[in-house]
């Protein structure tokens, strides 16, 4: 069953710098929600708070109604939350296959790791002939695919994605977003998608939030936001 996510009045800071100021948002079970906003708005920080990398200074994060409190990243991953961080986080020195194995650390049996790796090669056929290639030598698009595949290895029910289009050629971006929609439908995973490319994000997500200086400035159905004048002027290049 896909997870549902809720943030209630989350505040977060780096030392004395306050970054998130009262952020509330939801991802429906089985939904795709986009988080948009300018550079520095706090999108990456929001994902870091959810995955337990950064502790919220106030507010609550709930997965299926269960407060995460101050769980470690390890404990959050065990709950079925996968995180594809910005910069992808693949291990450059390791092969594609070994990156997937590392991603499968939460699966109890080796047979399951192998089975899930095969599933990932079905979803991302471009990775299959490259299983023995060092991750650091893959193209930007292939590295992004590997990062997503790695996060999908433990079969998460919620996937956090930080700018999957970054550093990826436009045609490959289209392909990756098609795969994300397919993963959402077929693998039972809800998605929170951080994306600079608002057009693409609003085509992919069913609901979206716009962060501005650490606050939610706007939110609504993607279709509504596409028609919103502020969104058009600031983010859609109208
Ligand atoms: P971008 O699209 O540029 O990544 P973003 O919306 O994801 O932007 P964040 O990365 O969440 O924004 O950053 C929000 C603010 O927090 C920025 O002002 C940034 O400089 C600051 N910040 C981020 N990481 C740190 C850190 N480790 N220490 C101090 N300040 C930080």
Automatic annotation (TrEMBL):
<dbReference type="GO" id="GO:0016887">
    <property type="term" value="F:ATP hydrolysis activity"/>
</dbReference>
<comment type="similarity">
    <text>Belongs to the ABC transporter superfamily.</text>
</comment>
<dbReference type="InterPro" id="IPR017871">
    <property type="entry name" value="ABC_transporter-like_CS"/>
</dbReference>
<dbReference type="Pfam" id="PF00005">
    <property type="entry name" value="ABC_tran"/>
</dbReference>
<keyword id="KW-1003">Cell membrane</keyword>
<keyword id="KW-0813">Transport</keyword>
<keyword id="KW-0472">Membrane</keyword>
<dbReference type="InterPro" id="IPR052156">
    <property type="entry name" value="BCAA_Transport_ATP-bd_LivF"/>
</dbReference>
<dbReference type="InterPro" id="IPR003439">
    <property type="entry name" value="ABC_transporter-like_ATP-bd"/>
</dbReference>
<dbReference type="InterPro" id="IPR003593">
    <property type="entry name" value="AAA+_ATPase"/>
</dbReference>
<dbReference type="GO" id="GO:0015807">
    <property type="term" value="P:L-amino acid transport"/>
</dbReference>
<keyword id="KW-0029">Amino-acid transport</keyword>
<feature type="domain" description="ABC transporter">
    <location>
        <begin position="5"/>
        <end position="238"/>
    </location>
</feature>
<dbReference type="GO" id="GO:0015658">
    <property type="term" value="F:branched-chain amino acid transmembrane transporter activity"/>
</dbReference>
<dbReference type="InterPro" id="IPR027417">
    <property type="entry name" value="P-loop_NTPase"/>
</dbReference>
<keyword id="KW-0067">ATP-binding</keyword>
<keyword id="KW-0547">Nucleotide-binding</keyword>
<dbReference type="GO" id="GO:0005524">
    <property type="term" value="F:ATP binding"/>
</dbReference>
<protein>
    <submittedName>
        <fullName>ABC transporter ATP-binding protein</fullName>
    </submittedName>
</protein>
